[in-house]
Amino acid sequence: MNQPAARFGRGAAFGARAALLLGTAAAITLLFAREPQTPDLGPLGSVNEVPRVARVSFVVPKDTAELRRERETVAAAVAPVFDYDSAAVGGTLSALRRWDAAVDSVLRAAPGTDARVRLAEWLSATGIPPTYPHLDVLADSRRRGALLALTETALSELAPDGVLLATRVPDEMDVLRVRGTPAGDRLVPAHTVLTAAQLRGRAAGQLGDPMGAAAAELQNLLLIRFLRPTLLPNPAETEAARQRARAAVDPVELRVRPGDTFLAAGARIGEAETRRL
Question: pTM value?
Answer without folding.
Answer: 0.69
